[in-house]
Amino acid sequence: MLNKFARHLMLIKKIALAASISLLTDTAVAQDFGLAELMSLLAQRKSSHATFVERKFLKVLEQPVESSGELEYVAPSLVKKQTLKPKPELLILDGEKLSIESGNKRRKTFNLQDHPEVSTFVTSIRATLSGDLSALENYYAVGLTGSQQQWQLLLTPKQPQLLKLIKQIRIDGTQGFVSTIAFEQADGDRSEMVITSDDGK
Amino acid sequence: MKRYNQTLPRVIWVCCILICVFFIARTQFVADLSAFMPKNPSERQKVLVDQLRDGAIARLILIGIEGGNQTERADLSKKLATQLRANPTFTGVQNGDEAAREKDGKYFFENRYLLSPRVTAERFSVQGLRLAIADTLDAMAGDAGLLVKQILPRDPTGETLQLIDQFVSENQPRNIDGAWAARDGKRALLLAQIRDSGLNTDAQARALDIIRDAFQQIPERSADTRLVMSGTSVMSVDSRNTIEGEIKRLASISVLLVIGLLLLVYRSPLLVVLGLLPVLTGAMVGMVAVSLVFGHIHGLTLAFGTTLIGESVDYSIYLFIQGAGGARTGNFWRTIRLGVLTSIVGFAALLFSSFPGLAQLGLYSISGLVAAALATRYVLPGLMPKAIDSRTIIKAGDVLLVVFAQAKKLRWALYLLLVVTLGYIVSFDGEVWNRQLSALSPISKNAQQLDMELRNDMGGTNIRYIASFAAADEEAALQQAEHAATLLQPLIDQRIIGGFNSPSFLVPSAASQHARQAAIPDATILRSNLHAALQGLPIKENLLSEFVADAEVARSRAPLTRADLAGTSVAALFDTLLIKRANDFLVLMPLTPSGEGAHGDEIDLDKVTAALQVDNTLQFTVIDLLEETTSVFDGYLREAAILSGLGCLAIAILLLMTSPLALALRIMVSLGCAVLCVVSLFLALGIPLTILHLVGLLLVVAVGSNYALFFNSDVQAQDQATQSKVAFSVLIANLTSVGSFGVLGLSKVPVLSAIGSTVGLGAFLALIFSAILATSTHTASTSKPS
C-alpha cells in the first residue's frame, strides 16, 4: 500500500520535474538521473570536510568581496562553517540550534524555529548535503539537470517572504559531492561558494 | 446597686459597638499580595519589593491568544492591540507588529550617530573612516553580508551593526504573520503595560476586564480562540478574588456549622444568638484595632482572626453549659481568665512578625479576644435566661466521663506516642521545610505554570541579576549608567557576564549626545575626509552621499529624549530600566549570565561588585533576585520559628506561674504531644512545613491550652454533675474550633489550608490528650459514691 503510494508520488514528481526541466535542457538526461538517485548518492556521505572560497558580487561594490574558510558536515544535522578570512567567523548549525560567533564577540545561539527565514535558508544547504528531498521540497521547488557526473540542482523558494530575498539557489556537484553553492538574490546581487573537498574522491 | 451593675456594662457595650460600626464603615479591606511582602525591607529587598509591587514590571500583563490557526491568532493579536492602544488605561501595547518593528528599526538607524558610543572625532578623520569602512567591507564578506549590504550607502562605518549587537537578544519571541508568537507557534503573544500603579488592585482588575471585553468583542472571532493572561497584576487580582471567594464560602460554612452545633446542644435560638454575641463584639473591636494601627485590614487577617477569636464562642459555651441548672464553680472565671491570658500570650508573639499579615492577625486576635472575654464576663450573664435545662447535658456528660475514665488506660500509649513522634521527627531525613515562596501563594499551580510558559515565550522577562543605583535626576542617572557601562564592558570580554542592559543604550545622556554631535565634522570636511578615505577601496564615492547628509542631520538635531521612543517596542523596556521615584530616579541594569562553563547560568556577583567599586563615587547595589527572594523567605521562616518558640515558652511560663507544677506539666505534655503528632503526620504525608504551619502550631498551643485548663481546673472540688457539665462543655467548645478550622483546612488557598488543617487537627488532639492525662483525678472522684 505504502509502496504503491510512494511510487505514485514519485511518478507525479517525475512528471513535474520533466515538465520544468524541459524548459531549460533536454529531458533525456533528466530521465537517466533523477532526484531520487541524486539524493541517495548524497545521503551516502556520512561526514565530510572541505575548504571553501565564497565570492559576493554586489552592486554597491566595484569588485567582488571574497571570504574563505572551512566547512564541515556530519550527517544528519551538523554543519560548521568556519570563515577564516577576512574576519574570523564561526557558524554552527547543530540540529535546531544555530550559533554564531564573530571576532571576539560572545557566541550567540538561536533556535532555528524562532527564525523561520534563516531556517529555510540553512535548510537548503543541509537538506542537500543529507539528501533529504522532503525537507527541501517543504521550502523549495526543486529542479535537477545534468548527469550523475555533473549535476545541477535548482532551488526556487516557495514562500513569497523568502522569495523577496532570494530568487534562486543553484547547487552544482559531482556524484555525492557538492562543488558550488550559488545564491542569486532578489535584487540581482549574487554570491558563489566554491567548495573543495578534503576527503579525496 | 445590682441593677446599676448590669446596666452600666450594657451601656458601655452598646456605645462600643456603635463606635466600631463607625470605624468599620471607613475601613479599607485589601486582599492582594501585600501580605507576602516584607514590612521592613532592606535596601536590597526594597528594590525587589518596589519592582514587584509598583514598578514597571508589576504593571506588565502578558497576554496569549490560543486556539484557531496561526493566521487567525496573528490577526486577533493585531486587532486586540489596536483596540487596547486606543485605550488610555494602557501606556503601551506590544505584539511585534510591523509598525512597531519599523519604528524600532527607524529609531536605531536614524539616530545611530547619537546612540553609538563609537562616534568620536577620530572616527570621522580620514584614517578613522578608512578603518571603519574596511571593517564594514569585511563584514559584507561574512555571513551577515546580505544585511550589511543594505545599510552600506547610509552607514558605511557600520554604527548600526554595533547597535544591533547590543539589542539582538537570543530569546525574543518568534514572529509569525506579523505578530509575536510562542516558541512552538501555538500561541500569539502580546504585552500590555497598565498606567496605574501595581498597588491599585481595583485599577488592575478593571484593566484586565477591558482586555477580556476587547477580545470578546472582536468581530468574526472564531469560538475556539481564547485569551490567557498572566503577570503580577493578573496574580494580584486572581489572588484577591480567590481569597475573597474562599473567605466568603468558608466563613459561611463554618458559621453554619457552629450555629448548627450550638442549636443541637442548646435547643434554644436565643442562647445561640447570645453565644455568638462575644464573637461578633470581638470581631468588630479587632477590625477597628487593626484598621487604626495598620490603616487597612487584609482579608486573610479577617478570615483567620475571626476563626481564632471563635475561641470566645467557647467562653459562652462554658458559661451556658457549666452554669446550666445551677451555680458555676467559684473557679470558673479564674479558669476563663487564665485561658484568655495564655491565648493572648501566644498571639502576642505574632505581633512582632515582619510578615504584615501575621502582625495584623496578632493584633486582631488579642484585641478581639479581650473584647469577647469582657463581653462574656460583664454583658452575657445579665442577658442569659436564669434556668437552662441541664438534664440532657449532664446525661451526655456522664457518658463522656465514662469514656474519659477509660481513656486513662491509654496513658502509657500517650507517652509512647510522644517518644515515637519525637524520634520520627528528629530522624526524618526528607524535606522538612518548604522554602519556596510560591508555596504560600494563593495562585493555583496551573496559573503559575501558565505564567512561566508566557514568560518563557516572551523571553528575557525573567530577570535574575540586577545592578542598580539611584540618582538625583534623569541626566545624572543616564550619565552614571554610561559610566557603569564602561566598567561592565570588560566583564563581557572576561566572560564573567554575558551582557547587560542600560537605559543609556536607548536614550544616551544629553552630555554624551552633545559630545557625539561635536565629534561629527561639517559636511564639507566630512566629504573631503571621505574622499581621501575611499582611495583604494572598492566603493564608489557618490554612492555614499546619503551618509554625509545623515551625519549633517545628526549633528544639528535636538538630543534624543524618552519622548522619541514613543511607539517603539523599547519604550516599555526603557521604563523598566529607568524608574522615576518620589524623590529620585532608580536605574536597573539587568545582567545576563555568560552561558559558558559549568555554571554558565550564574554570575559571580562578587566580581561584578568589585568591578563597579573601582570608582567609589558610584553607589551600586548588585542583587540576585532569586537569592533575595529566597532569603526574604528564609528570614520569615527563621523569624516564625523564633516567634512560635517564644510564644510557646511564654505560655509555659504563664502556666508554671499560675498553676501547680504537676498540673502545668500535664498541660504542657498533652499540648506538646499534640504538636509533635501534627508535625509527624504532615511529614509522613510528604507535606513540607511552611511558615504558616509553624504559626498554626503556635495557635494549637494557644487554643489547646484552654481545653487542658478546664479539664484540670480543681476537679477534686467538683461534684459529678459539675464534672459532667465541664466535660461536655469542653467537648462542644472543642468541636466548634475543630469544625471551623477544619473547614479552612479544606481551602484551596495554601495560606488558609495550612493553618486550618494544623489548628483543626492539633486542637482535637490537644483535647484528647488533655482528657487522657487529666482523668486520674476524675476517676478518683467518680469512684466515690455521690
Overview of this structure, please?
- The complex is a heterodimer of chains A (201) and B (786).
- With 201 residues, chain A is an alpha+beta fold.
- Chain A has a single domain (2-197), classed as outer membrane lipoprotein receptor (LolB), chain A (Clam).
- In chain A, 31% of the residues lie in helices and 42% in strands.
- Chain A has helices at residues 2-22, 27-32, 35-44, 116-130, 133-139, 160-163; strands spanning 47-57, 65-74, 78-85, 89-94, 97-102, 108-111, 140-146, 151-157, 166-174, 177-185, 190-197.
- Chain A has an eleven-stranded antiparallel sheet.
- In chain B, α27 (661-684) runs antiparallel to α28 (691-711).
- Chain B is built from 30 helices and 13 strands.
- Chain B has two domains: 2-27 and 268-440 and 628-782, no CATH class; 91-186 and 452-626, no CATH class.
- Chain B is of the alpha+beta class.
- Chain B is elongated.
- The chains are: A alpha+beta (201), B alpha+beta (786).
- The A-B interface holds A 54, 56, 58, 60-63, 65-67, 81, 83, 86-87, 89, 91, 100, 102, 104-111, 113-116, 165, 185, 189, 191 and B 137-146, 149, 152-153, 165, 168, 170-174, 176, 183-185, 492-493, 495, 498-499, 538-540, 543, 594-596.
Describe what is shown at a glance:
Chain A has 201 residues and is an alpha+beta fold. In chain A, 31% of the residues lie in helices and 42% in strands.
Defining traits:
heterodimer; A: about 200 residues; alpha+beta; outer membrane lipoprotein receptor (LolB), chain A; 6 helices; 11 strands; disordered N terminus; B: about 775 residues; 2 domains; five-stranded antiparallel sheet; four-stranded antiparallel sheet; 13 strands; disordered C terminus
What's the layout of helices and strands?
The complex is a heterodimer of chains A (201) and B (786).
Chain A lengths: L1 H21 L4 H6 L2 H10 L2 E11 L7 E10 L3 E8 L3 E6 L2 E6 L5 E4 L4 H15 L2 H7 E7 L4 E7 L2 H4 L2 E9 L2 E9 L4 E8 L4
Antiparallel strand pairs in A: 1-2, 1-11, 2-3, 3-4, 4-5, 5-6, 7-8, 8-9, 9-10, 10-11
Helix pairs in contact in A: 4-5
Chain B lengths: L1 H23 L4 E2 L12 H11 L6 E7 L3 H16 L4 E5 L3 H13 L1 H4 L10 H16 L3 H7 L7 H9 L6 E3 L2 E3 L5 E8 L6 H16 L9 E5 L1 H35 L2 H26 L2 E2 H11 L1 H13 L8 H20 L4 H28 L7 H17 L3 H17 L17 H14 L6 E7 L2 H20 L5 E2 L2 H4 L3 H10 L3 H11 L11 H12 L13 H8 E3 L4 E8 L12 H8 L8 E4 H34 L2 H24 L6 H21 L8 H26 L4 H33 L4
Parallel strand pairs in B: 1-8
Antiparallel strand pairs in B: 2-6, 2-7, 3-6, 4-5, 9-12, 9-13, 10-12, 11-12
Helix pairs in contact in B: 1-11, 1-15, 3-9, 6-7, 6-22, 9-10, 10-11, 10-29, 11-12, 11-13, 11-15, 12-15, 13-15, 13-29, 14-15, 14-26, 14-28, 16-29, 16-30, 17-27, 26-27, 26-28, 27-28, 27-30, 28-30, 29-30
